[in-house]
């Protein structure tokens, strides 16, 4: 591997793999930076080839042999077979995995000792460049490889690093969190429909409200509790609604859901 050039190979062209590729290429990086893409669904690969000009590998063996850094973007249940079947070929490679349930230690046990490993937890908003991506600290990548990985994932969202023991909590908050938010948006829109709004209008109001509120938290740095208080006038309509949410246990349900997700992630990793 040349010190200033990393040959990227992507294994898996599903939703997340494709999103990362699109973000990277749409950020101005040349398709030549991606050595090849491989997926059992060759139609997905061919679509990327036609749109961006990326090379499609004819086999896993070809892809791994031609690459310095491999992005593992396959389903978690495929990883064990992939690593076992191609074990020797991963020797000396940088392996960046986004598979849920595959922490750094588990990856180390499944791959050759000479493989350099980074575990990453992205989330689905990466598909529109608004992802939250967490690197598991303590990786064994070289500095050049790590900077490359930051550029790759930074093209689809915000990137931070956290210690391994927190990654199950990350899965439960940002990894699975979009599903909780979608459920809230759907329920908020349903409430609007019940109140007489046409569904498309109710959904637009709900989605934009959640988007704007999230930006208020992230861009102002003000605690969400304080922002909530600013909307709640004494004796007003908003505090009436908030009181119902508190009575129905919204906070407790969300906290319990996060805890259940974390526990499931821990079980999956064993």
UniProtKB/TrEMBL annotation:
GO terms for molecular function: pyrroline-5-carboxylate reductase activity. Transmembrane segments: none annotated. The keyword GTP-binding does not apply. Its EC number is 1.5.1.2. Keywords: NADP, Oxidoreductase. Residues 165-268 form the Pyrroline-5-carboxylate reductase dimerisation domain. Gene3D superfamilies: NAD(P)-binding Rossmann-like Domain, ProC C-terminal domain-like. InterPro entries: 6-PGluconate_DH-like_C_sf (IPR008927), NAD(P)-bd_dom_sf (IPR036291), P5C_Rdtase_cat_N (IPR028939), P5CR-like_CS (IPR053790), P5CR_dimer (IPR029036), Pyrroline-COOH_reductase (IPR000304). Pfam families: F420_oxidored, P5CR_dimer. One of its GO terms (biological process) is L-proline biosynthetic process. Residues 7-101 form the Pyrroline-5-carboxylate reductase catalytic N-terminal domain. The keyword Oxidoreductase applies. NCBIfam families: proC (TIGR00112). Belongs to the pyrroline-5-carboxylate reductase family. This is Pyrroline-5-carboxylate reductase. The gene is proC_18.
């Amino acid at each position: 591997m040349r010190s200033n050039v990393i040959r990227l190979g992507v294994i898996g062209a599903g939703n997340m793999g494709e999103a990362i590729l699109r973000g990277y290429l749409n950020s101005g990086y040349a398709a030549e930076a991606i050595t090849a893409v491989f997926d059992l669904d060759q139609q997905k690969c061919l679509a990327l080839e036609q749109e961006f000009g990326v090379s499609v590998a004819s086999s896993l063996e070809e892809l791994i042999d031609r690459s310095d850094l491999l992005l593992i973007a396959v389903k978690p249940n495929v990883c064990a077979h992939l690593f076992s079947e191609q074990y020797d070929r991963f020797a000396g490679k940088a392996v960046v995995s986004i598979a849920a349930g595959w922490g750094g230690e588990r990856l180390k046990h499944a791959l050759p000792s000479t493989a350099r490993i980074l575990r990453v937890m992205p989330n689905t908003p990466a598909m529109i460049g608004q992802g939250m991506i967490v690197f598991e600290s303590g990786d064994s990548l070289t500095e050049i490889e790590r900077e490359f990985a930051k550029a790759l994932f930074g093209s689809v969202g915000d990137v931070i690093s956290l210690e391994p023991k927190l990654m199950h909590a990350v899965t439960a908050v940002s990894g699975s969190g979009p599903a909780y938010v979608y459920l809230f948006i759907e329920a908020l829109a349903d409430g609007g429909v019940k109140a007489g709004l046409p569904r498309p209008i109710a959904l637009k109001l709900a989605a934009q409200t959640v988007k704007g509120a999230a930006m208020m938290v992230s861009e102002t740095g003000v605690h969400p509790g304080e922002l909530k208080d600013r909307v709640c006038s004494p004796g007003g309509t908003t505090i009436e609604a908030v009181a119902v949410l508190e009575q129905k246990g919204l906070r407790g349900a969300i906290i319990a859901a996060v805890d259940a997700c974390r526990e499931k992630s821990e079980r999956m990793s064993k």
